[in-house]
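Q: What would this chain look like folded?
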Amino acid sequence: MSELNLSLLGFEKKFEDPFILPSSEFMPETLHEALDLALYLYNLNPMYREGIERAIDHFVTNLKFVKGTSTKEDGDWLTYFREDLEFLTFLRTVGKEHACYGNAFVYIHYPFDRYLEDKNDPSKRFAIDAVLSAAKDVSFDLKSLTYTATFEGKKRTFTICDLPSSDKSRLTLRKIDPRWITIEPGVCSGKNSYIFRIPNTWVNYVEKRVFHAINDMPILFLKAIGQKKAFRFKSDEIFHMKDDTISGVTEGGWGIPDPILNYRMLHKLQVYHKIDESIARDFMMPFRVFSPAQGTEITTDFMAGPAWKREMQTLIANRRSDGEAIHAVPFPLEYNEHGANGKQLSPKDIIEYHSSEMLNALGVPAELYHANISYQHAPLAFRVFETNFMFYHKAFNKLLTWVAEKVRIFTKEDLGTIELEKPSAAADYERKSIMMSLYQAGQLSKKTLFEASQLGDPAEESALRMKEDMDMQLEAAKAQAEAERELQAETVGIVGLQQQAMAQAGGMGMAPMPAGAMPSAGGGITPTDIMEQADIKAQEWLSMPIGPRRTAMAQTKAADPNLYAMAKQKMEEMRGQVVSEARAQMTPQ
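A: My prediction, written as structure tokens:
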């Protein structure tokens, strides 16, 4: 492109063209170079590749019959497309092909059985596997398409005879690398002619007499290789998937690869990745330096520069081989670290920003890609996403129609009309959101809401919930009753122990003391003392975890059964008090 001559208008050139960037130096000049660059960019950027492949997977939906023949036959044909043809898996592959190259080419490989006929006696026909496994000195002539071999004791020349097979399970869908295709455009009708330049790898297989590869190729391909010509597909023998472009962007019937359309953004993102890698190499690990300590005088010849450097290298090597070794040097050293600030220099935020920009330019919302989109924004995001990539749904349906017609012609059976289901994620989100709003406003029944969410019968679910609540209340009541019985039994035992302790105190010549009285200065343990100790022990046990608590209780029980029983009663009383307060707070006023 020539520069605009502003001098004719009386202006002087002051600024460089802002559209001429460093990335412009690497733009391809030919179609083949563009396809190679598209493949390189597609594989080099995993986030770009994963984003577009997620979009493709979203449109690989289930098959359905719009107009079928019968329920059983429809089911058989759906099984055939899913399992024999593996159509849905193939769709994903074709989608990725288009995402990379902007074009995808599909043809159907029709099955055949190859035989060898004796050139001198055409009535003698042999399966090729039987000849190759038993014959000796087998050779293949590419020009005449004949085999020569010693078979059944005679040296024979065989011609190739291919018989078509009617087994539809052997039909296979194949894609062709766009770099092997030449398009002769139909400039008026739009119906293009496609020429297949047979790749060198195929030619090498034939020239090196790889018999399995030779016998897998249709005879028309072998003839083209023998004549060193390209192979022209017949009309409607190949399906070309591409996205139409505006006028002036491309000519010749080709689609534009998306990686090329997003090339400048991918280039800039890769520049930041390169910066990040350079920082990781130079600034993440510290640059470590040994040097003599300041003020140290080196006067010996031994410690001249080269000798000192070798000594330090030996010290470092020994340190790495044995981390526990002790090292000695004749004078103090200084160890300094430089750098190690790569984390601050890394353009992490910039890379994240440009990655999001790249996803948005691709048509995949960054929040949807990272799966952190809010529920309120999900319907709109899905709607925009599906609208941007609806091309894949339409293109996949066109391919399905094309394949179904080829299968119908091959089998001579009526398939009906088959298509892919339309993605429903966006519609489902919107419908459920509207239904929830209507239900909250009292304008939608529970049954309708439950059926839409596949949650079963609301009456049954409500009855089940009530039964669960009643079972939980019953179990809680049983546990509370059992705890009260245990507490009552222990209380009766503790009262007896208290009476026994008071009797023992009276037998020792001590007058019974009223409740709450303090022990006399003359000594002795009163029931009040035991109750106070029990209260302290109960508080101590409650503050312990379960394991240590059990150990402490067992030790107290072995040392003083009376104190243990009273302390346990106190602990249960404290627990009961806490539970009662909690229930009182939970009871509605």
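The radius of gyration is 43 Å.
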